[in-house]
Specification:
By secondary structure, the protein is α+β, with helices and mostly antiparallel strands. It folds into two domains: 82 residues, Immunoglobulin-like (Sandwich), CATH 2.60.40; 252 residues. It is built from twelve helices and eight strands. The strands form two sheets. Strands 1-2-6-5 form a four-stranded antiparallel beta sheet, with no helix packed on it. α5 packs antiparallel against α6, α7 runs antiparallel to α11 and α8 packs across α9. It is globular.
């Protein structure tokens, strides 16, 4: 009888989704009321306006300096005058105040000289001065078919071809013993760890260059954490719908290889963005040293992709797909970087790459557990990790440009 009454009472209660929706509606209404009427109950702010601008892009053409600025502070910024090296000059653009997170483009008439440094001072209507330094003035290459074709070639040279070359060692890996394979997987972890650290530092540098209106370095860590969580959820969803097999199973090895290729691909996307952005501002020295340095640096990535597949037969179409997944994003990144050159976007994409690489490291570490000692890090694994870090560091020294 009591159980029947409890069932009746539970049926009379509102469903959880309805209660949750009502709670969200109440919270939203309260926050909206605070936003609409809260300011009227507070005193006016004392002190001068807080004016901040972030210079996101500089384009130099003969007789003109073009700045793309973004509002980075809480108050709109009205640009009244512009000076270059303490000389006031004419400018066009930014007719309206630049609000927070909005952008404006200033076209400054100035006969700049190639190779000289310049200090651009933006004077606001309140008398504040916002400065931006151009260390060395170099004409910005125009975005044209020829330049985009150059970016495609660079992406092939530094992304696709080196990765495919590294993957060609797969026949040799199939003859390796279990200990050698553990060392190679550990080498992969060292390689990926270097990539993750390098991408994090590059992302922080780009976020600082953007001035922080979108969070600065926090943007890199937030996108990295979100990517790790999302990709981990997707990976668990995929594994739940596949037949169960151990770490040595073919499906598990293929899934791990795709994860490694995807993580490296996201890293190469960020690498391509850096190449394209450097080209867009005239700071990229396109030459044999750059190509050879990147090629040597990225060849080891192909080894990392095929290491989990050493004990399994895989057709060449699938291997080609793995190589394209890892290397082709360098082409996309180079083209986008040359055409857009947005440091905030580049920092966010580098954060995505960091999150993907972190997940791949966790996945690669699982098969490293020794069957006897149940330890992951033992002398062979430690040697492999250190070797991976050392190889990536030493080949990275060859990357110039």
């Amino acid at each position: 009888m009591l159980e029947h009454e409890r069932d009746e009472a539970s049926r009379r209660q509102a469903p959880p989704w309805l209660l949750g929706g009502a709670l969200l509606a109440v919270i939203g209404a309260v926050l909206a009321a605070i936003a609409l009427f809260g300011g009227a109950t507070l005193p006016d702010r004392a002190g001068p306006p807080v004016e901040q601008l972030a210079v996101e892009r500089v384009v130099l053409t003969p007789g003109t300096i073009e700045l793309t600025v973004r509002g980075a502070g809480p108050d709109p910024v009205s640009i009244a005058q512009v000076a270059v090296n303490d000389s006031f000059t004419e400018f066009r653009g930014a007719d309206e105040p630049v609000a927070r997170l909005s952008t404006a483009t200033l076209s400054i008439d100035y006969p700049w000289v190639d190779g000289q440094p310049y200090l651009v001072s933006l004077l606001t209507s309140t008398g504040a001065v916002i400065e931006h330094e151009i260390p060395i003035a170099v004409a910005t290459p125009p975005v044209a078919v020829d330049s985009l074709a150059t970016m495609v070639l660079l992406g092939l040279y530094v992304g696709v071809i080196p990765v495919v070359l590294g993957m060609s060692v797969l026949p040799l890996l199939r003859r390796a013993g279990p200990t050698v394979m553990r060392v190679l997987l550990a080498f992969t972890i060292g390689l990926l760890a270097f990539i993750g650290i390098d991408a994090t530092l590059d992302g922080i540098e780009l976020a600082d260059r953007a001035g922080g209106p979108f969070g600065g370095p926090a943007l890199v860590f937030l996108t990295g954490a979100a990517t790790f969580v999302v990709l981990n959820g997707v990976d668990r969803w995929v594994r739940a719908r596949q037949p169960r097999e151990g770490h040595g199973g073919r499906q598990a090895a293929l899934r791990l290889a795709w994860l490694v290729a995807g993580g490296i691909g996201l890293h190469n996307l960020g690498e391509g963005l850096a190449i394209g952005s450097a080209f867009a501002v005239g700071e990229l020295a396109v030459g044999a040293a750059l190509v050879v340095g990147f090629a040597l640096h990225n060849t080891t990535e192909g080894l990392a992709i095929v290491a989990p597949l050493a004990e399994h037969r895989v057709g060449w179409p699938r291997l080609l797909g793995l190589g394209m997944l890892a290397g082709a994003p360098a082409i996309v990144g180079a083209v986008v970087g040359a055409a857009v050159d947005n440091p905030t976007l580049s920092a966010a994409l580098l954060g995505v790459g960091v999150g993907a690489v972190a997940l791949v490291i966790v996945q690669v570490a699982a098969p490293l557990r020794d069957a006897t000692t149940r330890r992951i890090v033992d002398p062979p694994v430690a040697v492999g990790i250190v070797a991976g870090l050392a190889v990536m560091y030493l080949t990275g020294l060859l990357v110039v440009g």
